[in-house]
Design goal:
The complex is a heterodimer of chains A (about 300) and B (about 525). By secondary structure, chain A is α/β, with parallel strands linked by helices. Helix content of chain A is about 30%, strand content about 30%. Chain A has helices spanning about 50-55, 75-80, 100-110, 115-125, 140-150, 170-185, 195-200, 220-225, 265-275, 290-295; strands spanning about 10-20, 20-35, 35-40, 65-70, 70, 85, 155-160, 185-190, 205-210, 210-220, 225-235, 245-255, 255-260, 280-285. In chain A, the strands form 3 sheets. Chain A has a 6-stranded mixed β-sheet with strand order 6-7-8-3-9-10, sandwiched between helices. In chain A, a hairpin with a 2-residue loop joins strand 1 and strand 2. In chain A, helix 3 (about 100-110) runs parallel beside helix 5 (about 140-150). Chain B has about 525 residues and is an all-alpha fold. In chain B, about 75% of the residues lie in helices and about 0% in strands. Chain B has helices at about 10-20, 20-45, 45-55, 60-65, 75-105, 105-110, 115-120, 125-150, 160-185, 190-215, 215-220, 225-230, 240-260, 285-315, 315-325, 325-335, 340-365, 365-375, 375-380, 385-420, 425-435, 440-455, 460-480, 485, 505-525. The two termini of chain B are about 40 Å apart. Classes of the chains: A alpha/beta (about 300), B mainly alpha (about 525). Chains A and B meet through helix 2, strand 6 and helix 3 of A and helix 1 and helix 7 of B. The complex binds adenosine-5'-diphosphate and magnesium ion. Adenosine-5'-diphosphate (ADP) binds near residues 22, 24, 44, 46 and 49 of chain A. Adenosine-5'-diphosphate (ADP) binds next to strand 2 and helix 1 of chain A.
């Protein structure tokens, strides 16, 4: 999908956040443009939630700054919040109010009550709004926050691991909701460690690790940074392949050669092997997962 | 910062909705309690009895406990009510306000309920502001009802002017403690901490006025509790203390607002110390975990009991001087031959201390219930330990704690008495006099365990029963309650040494009752569902 190049909705500049002596964010830089679905991925404790809370102005940056819609995240929080909807990863509600009451409260605090959308979403997410929140499971509490968010007419949706308690069916409904907002041109910041979800929904991805953004780009761009796995069977045995730049983990088994190749060396490799009469060729494009693992594998990765 | 207060009114509505049961109950109980006592006093104390009481109370020990006796030369019912009761009413209102404010600020924040609220277009201070607006409304209702009800009971010396001032003083001091709790809710990152510090402040204010009322007036004026008593309700009806307290409340609220605007959500201003990364050996067992959860409560209360015992012990010197000068006091306390005045006074202190010990004991005995409400018990119960052991663990902890707490009291008393009246008493006597209360404490623990097992929704009833015992023992000494009322509390069957001698029959019966209640609680607990 091609996107118009819009203005920046979120701009995070060299953001550092310390809790006492512990540095949770260490110079985060991040830009999200209008109408874009941005995926923030990273393992537990990487700083996703801290980044988001700073954007929401409920944590104050130690240094650096964060702005949303061109306004300062801390100083202009209330103005910003009129145009954003947030779903936390861990939704906690008041045990003696019903789900319906809480949704209405959240919508009421926005000042607009979108009854039709609310009821449609209740149905889609299959939530009983008459039950007290004390009886809700984690997933149901998450649905309450999701319904309140998607029933609003916010311009930017900030979702922090919003599907961690949902079953696969509900996850699908969630994805449809996100795509619907995307089609309306709304922006989404989705933090997640469910990679298939991010691959399906996001235009651009940022990888955060130990309080630093280590990689950002469109999925295509990120794939360039990773390696493609190939296995090839040829009529004549392949020679000299080990000399080509960008080849890794070369193996041969009964005439089938398999290896990994850096995405940007692909052209060289293909023209080299063409000379040996290819019988069969298989290539697996890199998955976000590999990318993710490359950054996180404690053993050093690929 | 723009819009810091936005949406305060909507959040106030939310608080009122959530409070539709709890707060009306508090208010009704408080008004019934405070006005009921005013009615009771009128019926129970003819003029001569009041006058006698005024003189009786006018000694350092009682002044330390109750405050200065104003209007003693014409101790009308109004004067008696204002002098003896307003302190306790204000302290109860303070407790209500502390719980109320922490419940709607720090506790909600700690449980993550404020996060989504704050992501909506609500101001940074809106949540605190809503709690404060609600507190103003609640205290106003409470104050007005108090004034109104005091006036309509139609006791001659409880007049309109005094009733109005009483209500206003309740309103003002309620707000001051709401403000104090609001500040501690900003300082501490946990609701337990916020409640704990607020109660500590209340305790310190009480001690300040105790010391101040005996010999350093300035301390009493610095304590809102001492200050409010100087309104001289139904005597002078001085409005100045109420006005000063209102101004103090406004100033303290301003501090809370300022702190709230500056800090991160979920954080306190005081640093939280990091926990340990691995469980100690003890923590890895079921019982160890339970112990860990109540350890701090228990240690704090052991210190409190020791210090309270010691402070009562330390006024023993004054008691003797006083008794030799006052016929009334001799008549009241020195009537039993062969016992020293210090021992006599000690017997009264012992009963009060045993009541104090009930507070930590009930907290421990009801700990499982509070864990269950927080859904934390689920994790533990899904382990390999049989369910019944879980509750049994807390019961055992409460029984052990009862012994330790009584020992701490006895020791505190003994050391202080030894210091002011060497040879005035023996440790053996004090141990017997305090440990003899154990069966009554055990009955209350038994009730708490039984309720946890059988009627988990209403475990807090046991607090009401505690309040009742407190009333019968503590005020019964002054008000001469009818026997059948006093006998509804297990404390009525405990001999007060050395005036009474130990009779093992009722003690054994109480112990058996306690064991049966506890056992029944455990059996019911094993059978019931989890309940939030
Ligand atoms: N209030 C806090 N006090 C101290 N440390 C915190 C606090 N909040 C988060 N952290 C720490 O900051 C790091 C980042 O946390 P977080 O942003 O929640 O990670 P993520 O959402 O990516 O899992 C973690 O190591 C976490 O323990
Ligand atoms: Mg997180």
């Amino acid at each position: 999908m091609t996107k118009k190049i819009g203005s920046e909705t979120v701009k995070i500049n060299n953001l550092t956040k310390r809790f006492g002596s512990f540095t949770a964010l260490n110079g985060v830089n991040l830009t999200i443009t209008e109408g874009e679905v941005f995926g923030l991925i990273g393992p537990n404790g990487a700083g996703k939630t801290t980044t988001i809370r700073t954007l929401l102005g409920i944590l104050q940056a130690t240094s650096g700054n964060a702005s949303v819609f061109g306004m300062d995240a801390w100083k202009d929080a209330v103005e910003i919040h009129k145009r954003i909807a947030y779903v936390p990863g861990d939704v906690n509600l008041w045990p003696n109010l019903t789900g319906g009451e809480v949704i209405d409260l959240f919508l009421g605090l926005r000042g607009k009550h979108e009854k039709i959308r609310r009821d449609k979403l209740l149905k889609a997410f299959d939530l009983d709004p008459t039950k007290k929140c004390r009886t809700y499971s984690k997933g149901n509490r998450q649905k309450v926050a999701l319904i309140a968010a998607f029933a609003s007419d916010a311009d930017l949706f900030i979702l922090d691991e919003p599907t961690s308690g949902l079953d696969p069916l509900m996850e699908r409904i969630f994805q449809e909701c996100v795509l619907e907002q995307k089609n309306k041109g709304k922006g989404v910041l989705l933090s997640s460690h469910i990679l298939s979800e991010v691959e399906r929904l996001c235009d651009r991805v940022g990888i955060i690790r130990e309080g630093k953004i280590v990689e950002t780009g469109t999925l295509d761009e990120l794939r360039h940074l990773t390696r493609i796995t190939m296995s090839i069977e040829t009529e004549r045995p392949i020679t000299d392949i080990a000399q080509i730049a960008g080849i890794h983990d070369l193996m041969e088994d009964q005439g089938i050669v398999s290896f990994q190749v850096d995405a940007d060396e692909m052209a060289n490799v293909v023209s080299h092997i063409a000379r040996f009469k290819v019988k069969k060729i298989e290539s697996n494009p890199p998955k976000l997962e590999d990318l993710f693992m490359r950054h996180y594998d404690i053993n050093g990765g690929a | 910062m723009r819009g810091s207060f936005d949406n305060s009114l909507n959040l106030t509505k939310l608080i009122i909705k959530r409070e539709r049961l709890m707060t009306p109950l508090w208010i009704i109980m408080l008004v019934l309690f405070s006005v009921g006592i005013a009615v009771g006093m009128g019926d129970m104390f003819p003029a001569e009895a009041r006058q006698a009481l005024a003189e009786t109370l006018n000694n350092p020990a009682m002044v330390a406990m109750m405050g200065p006796i104003f209007g003693a030369d014409n101790f009308t019912i109004g004067a008696m009510y204002g002098t003896l009761m307003m302190l306790w009413i204000v302290m109860t209102v303070a407790v209500m306000n502390i719980f109320f404010i922490v419940r709607h600020t720090r506790a909600d924040e700690e449980r993550g309920r404020v996060e989504v609220i704050r992501s909506l277009p609500t101001g940074r201070i809106a949540n605190l502001n809503a709690a404060v607006i609600s507190a103003v409304a609640i205290n106003a209702v409470l104050g007005l009802l108090t004034s109104f009800c005091l006036y309509i009971i139609n006791v001659e010396t409880i007049d309109l002017a005094g009733s109005l001032l009483s209500g206003a003083a309740v309103f003002a001091s309620g707000l001051l403690f709401a403000a104090i709790a609001a500040v501690f809710s900003q300082l501490s990152a946990s609701s337990r901490g916020a409640v704990g510090y607020s109660f500590l402040a209340l305790g310190v204010f009480y001690m300040m006025r105790a010391a101040g009322d005996i010999n350093a007036e300035i301390l009493s004026l610095l304590s809102p509790l001492g200050l409010v008593q100087r309104s001289q309700f139904f005597i002078e009806n001085n409005w100045l203390p109420t006005i000063v307290i209102l101004i103090q409340a406004a100033a303290v609220f301003a501090i809370a607002y300022t702190l709230n605007a500056k800090r991160d959500l979920g954080q306190g201003i005081l640093p939280a110390r990091p926990g340990r990364s691995e469980a100690s050996k003890m923590m890895r067992s079921q019982f160890g975990l339970s112990f860990r959860l109540v350890k701090n409560t228990l240690i704090t209360w052991l210190i409190v009991m020791f210090l309270l015992g010691a402070s009562y012990g330390s006024i023993m010197g004054d008691i003797d001087t006083f008794v030799s000068e006052s016929e009334f006091y001799q008549a009241l306390i020195g009537a039993v031959e062969g016992f020293s005045t210090a021992e006599m006074f000690t017997s009264m202190v012992n009963s009060i201390m045993a009541l104090m010990a009930m507070i930590p004991l009930l907290i421990i005995a009801l700990k499982l219930r509070s864990e269950e409400k927080e859904h934390r018990a689920e994790v533990v119960l899904s382990g390999v330990v049989p369910r019944i052991n879980h509750l049994a663990g807390y019961a055992i902890l409460a029984f052990i704690a009862s012994l330790l707490l009584q020992l701490a009291t006895a020791l505190g008393l003994f050391l202080a008495i030894e210091a002011v009246l060497p040879g005035g008493t023996t440790l053996g006597f004090l141990l017997r006099a305090n440990l003899v209360y154990l069966p009554a404490l055990w009955v209350k623990i038994g009730i708490a365990i039984l309720l946890t097992g059988l009627l988990p929704k209403i475990t807090s009833v046991v607090w009401g029963y505690f309040a009742f015992s407190f009333f019968t023992v503590f005020l019964g000494r002054i008000l001469n309650l009818p026997n059948w009322i006093a006998n509804l509390s297990p404390f009525a069957f405990i001999p007060e040494l050395p005036v009474d001698s130990i009779n093992y029959a009722p003690l054994t019966v109480l112990t058996v009752i306690a064991v049966v209640l506890t056992a029944a609680g455990l059996v019911f607990y094993r059978k019931r569902d989890m309940d939030y």
